[in-house]
Amino acid sequence: MCSYAVNKDRYTCPSGYHRRTWSCVSGSGRYYCGECAKGTDCWTGPFACSIWFGPDPV
What pLDDT does 42 receive? Predict the structure, then answer.
């Protein structure tokens, strides 16, 4: 799991990795998955860590 300060949505990545976040809806909430990846999007690794947070109201 990625490190974070105060709230999970403030997750931090190791040097050389970038924050990438995607979301999905389940019921009345939106959940988020944060990745620390070297690629230009959520799907391109290598990956250092992941974290989930939510739900927020849809």
Answer: 86
CA distance 39 to 18: 8
SS3 7: coil
CA dihedral 41, 46, 51, 54 (to 10 degrees): 20
Q: Tell me how far apart the alpha carbons of residues 10 and 3 are, in angstroms, rounded to a whole number.
A: 9
Contact of 21 with 34, CB cutoff 8 Å: yes
In the predicted model, is pLDDT for residue 32 greater than 90?
A: yes
pLDDT at 58 over 90: no
CB 47 within 8 A of CB 35: yes
- Is 0.85 surpassed by the pTM of this model? no
